[in-house]
Amino acid sequence: MFFQKGEKLEEDLYSNSGVLLLRKGTFLTERLAAILNKYEVIRDPELDGRRIATEVPGIFHDLLYENIYREMEELQRVIQMKTTLYDAEVESMERNFRKLYKEVFATRTSILELMEHFSADEYLFKHCIHVGLIAANIGKILKLHPEKQSLLAQMGLFHDIGKFTIDPQILNKPGRLTDEEFALIKKHPEAGYRLLEKTSLDPMILKGVLMHHERLDGSGYPDGRKTIPFLVRILSVADTFDAICSNRAYRRRQPVFFAIDELMADADAGRLDREIVLPFANFLMENYWKQPITLRNGIKGSIIRIHPLHPNQPVLKSKGTRF
């Protein structure tokens, strides 16, 4: 079937794995219609609606992402008029993100492929979504309880909500920020905490909003804390990684290898938790095991050994030579 802008869905729409994507009566935007037209949609009597016919290996469900993206746009408009949020204003976004999180993990979608797939989207919204998924993935790598993994996903979704209060011209400024502008941006953790403190969100989500820029050596902000909850330390690693690997207004995204180097440097300096960075860095490097890579000097090679304590210093092989 073919979907058109302005059309109203006559039935509920589900993913291939049975996750509700869009409810009956939803009006389709041009982008939603374009997304749906990429897939075969069939009737499913068991679900009393329609579903995406097949999974596309390695590609994320655009539709769930688009749902959350639109809700973030609406939430940003609300925040421009209010200084405090309540449950009714965040619960839909939270609910859809929970579906997204479950779908990503159920289909074993690669986080790196996901980041690549949406690399051109608006940074702040995309960053919040990705940090939630990355943080949950780190929780999985560390074998945390599934409830903790789910909580990490929610922490990532809301961690930068305070930036919704900042003038987009400052957030998206292509040049160097003035001292005054940077001071304003550094207030976003406290602004986010104030926005959410009247909701019934898990208290750890609010701690993540307030403390994700704190560092273990006391060099972070807003309070220069050295005692940071473990889940917030995971959130900080996820936040740092996605920020490095994403396009920003003032610089192009950096390769995963560069991000791993930066994470390891922060761990060695005592800013980030080494017990979190090491397993995550090893996980990332395993994606490149025996895969062809190109070095900065243009030489092509492949990774043949990764040291578990120094994943940012792999052994490479190129034309019969190791280095």
TrEMBL record:
Signal peptide residues on this chain, from the entry's feature table: none
Family annotation (InterPro entries): HD/PDEase_dom (IPR003607), HD_GYP_dom (IPR037522), HDIG_dom (IPR006675)
Top-level division of the source organism's lineage: Bacteria
Stretches assigned to the HD-GYP domain: 98-295
Full protein name: HD-GYP domain-containing protein
